[in-house]
Structure formats: structure tokens, C-alpha cells
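REVIEWER CHECKLIST
Item 1: Sequence provided? yes
Item 2: Single chain? yes
Item 3: Sequence as submitted:
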Amino acid sequence: MKESIAIISNYYPPEKGAAANRIEQLALQLQENGYAVQVICPLGNYPFGKLFPTYKGKLFAEENQNGIRVSRLWIFPSVSKNKLIRLFSVLSFVMSLLVYLGFKKTPHKIIVQSPPLLLSFVSVALLHLKKKKIILNVSDLWPLAAIELNALQSGSVSHRIAKKMEQFIYQKATVILGQSEEILTHIRSIDSHKPLYLYRNFPQHGHVEIENMSEAVRPIKLFYAGLLGVAQGVLELCIKLELPANMELHLFGDGTEKEAIQAELAKNPRSNWYFHGMLDRKELHQQLQHFDVALIPLKTRIYGSVPSKIFEYSALGFPALYFGGGEGAELVNQYELGWVAAVGDYRETNQKLKEIAALNPAKLNQLKVAVLNTSRIQFNVSKQVKDLCEKDVF
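Item 4: Structure as written out by the authors:
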């Protein structure tokens, strides 16, 4: 009989974005390693802040997705900029989760995704009382990231409460997974005795083939695909990026800055800029077969954050132009995955664009193959999870 394990997450497909993809990948990998996996998450609503048609009018939904049992709980969905409304949205799922964990039988081993910090705090507190094995999966450092994004004021009452919650979840977790070395270093400064393991957000795309550029002259196709939020800074990118004449930029995604981005492109149209909106992940990957270079921006350098797009697009054979700083920049440089510019330095970024535009087709094809081969060797998700299972992390 398979051993059972559950994952508590605020996101799961068919929701879009790196967070949902990350949890699905973890669930599928655990399944491949012999676990019966359950995911406990809200009714699908992200990133639109509205329940998907399938879930409207429901308080609870039970599904089977690729052999994974998915238990979806009620939430008041919202992407409002009003902090109180956003807080109520998080609390609505927290209350649903409290009822579920209080009355439903759950496995002994439970993975808790953090952030959201409030969700992970409540989950860890209740699971600790129930004497469960708590595997805390930390993908970003809160409240530190909130301070860097100006979402919290340092030293405020909210900040002090959040720090207490952060300390609590690290201390009460049985074992902790961190998505970056910076995250592990930060946690170690709070609890130096906790078992800590690096768990990168590596994708698994199956067989990938590089579409070589022909020797005939054509534009080099640059793309951004992902959330259009404040942290990514795509609106500022649309204003300050200077695209060479032999280059195209294609934007895919949705989020809080979508309308502002569309308005900017309508106000200042460029013949080599294209906005495509949000696509299904499978459809997006089909579209990307015809592109050349991934653009990976962050508006602010966030300690502990390593964008999953670095691994996602290297696994598809795309070199990246990265300007997010920190450990992400170190990885791009270390493994020769593309080009790095300083956060917010559009002068340097535009210079990198000129360097990319000067590449001939043969050189660009060579670079894409090298990035794909590096990814296959260095960013192997199956090996990563298997190693952690052998260490009895899960």
C-alpha cells in the first residue's frame, strides 16, 4: 500500500503561474516516487480573482488530476489592491482550511507551502497540535520580501507580527525545504538546528528539440511570459526598453498591470512589440518553439528569490536576459545561461539587447543547444526529489 502525503497550497492548476506549476511538479514527482498524493487548495480563481466557471456556486470540490487527489476548499477570491479585501480573501481560505483539517482525516506527512505567511502559520500551528510531520516548503521569505516590495513598513505592528509568525513556522516545522541558498541561510539564522534542504523549482518538459534559426535574415524573437504584476515590473520595461530594429518582443501573461501595459502599447505603438495575453501552459510552450531568448525581469532585487523562469526556460533551450540580481544572477552567470544586467539599470539592459541583436544565427543556435544541455545535466527534478526521498525528507 502506498504511503500517503498531502500538500497544502494556495495555488494549483488549472490556475496559472509559477506557484501553481511548482506545486503540481512536486505532487507528480512524489507520485512517481511511490506516494499517494493529496493536494489541499482553494477553488480555482488565480490570477483573475474570480472563481473559474467550473467552481462557481460550490463550497467544496474533489477532483482527480493525473492520479493526484485534489481537494478544493471555498475561498472569497480577490485581486483587489485594497489590503483589507486581500486579507479577507486569505482569511476566507484559512477558515475553510481550519474546518477541513479539524474534521477530515489527513495523512501523517503534510507539506505546507509558504508564502502566504498567514496560511502557513495557521497550517503549521494546527498540524503541530495534531503531531503531524510538517515539511515546510519556503519559496520566498516573508515578511522580508514584503519590506523590499514596499508592501510592509519596517518596524510597523504588522511587520512585528509577521516576524513572530515567520519564527513560529520555522521552529515548529519538522523539516524545511528552501528554494534558494539565501533562503536557507536566512532560516538558519533563526533556527540553527532545523534540518534544511535545498529544493529548486526545476521543471520537467519531456523531450525538447531546438528549432534552429535559418541563415536567412529574420528578427531575433525575445519574449516575456508570466505574471504581469508589480514585482515583475513589465510596465516599466515597456516604457524604458529600447529594442533593436532586428529584434521582436512578445509579451504573454495576465495580472494587475495588464491594462496599463496595453494602454502604454496603444499610446506608443511599436511595430516590433506584440501582446498576446494569457495562454494555457501547453499552448504557450508550442508558441515558444519559434522564439529565441527569454526575458526575465524583477523590479526589485528580493533577497532569497530565484525566479523559476530561469529553470523553466533553460529546460526549453532558451538563453535568458536576466535582470533580477541576487542568487538568480549568480546562477545565470555560473551556468552560462545567458546575459545579466543590474536590477533597474535599463542602460545596461539596452546594451545587452544590442549584444544579442549582433549574434548571427549559427551562434544563437549554438547557445540555445548549450543552455538545453546544461539544464538537462544540472537541473534534474527527478534526481532532486529522488535524493530527498532517499534522505527521508518526505
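Item 5: Key structural point noted by reviewer: The mean pLDDT is 90.
Item 6: Recommendation: ____
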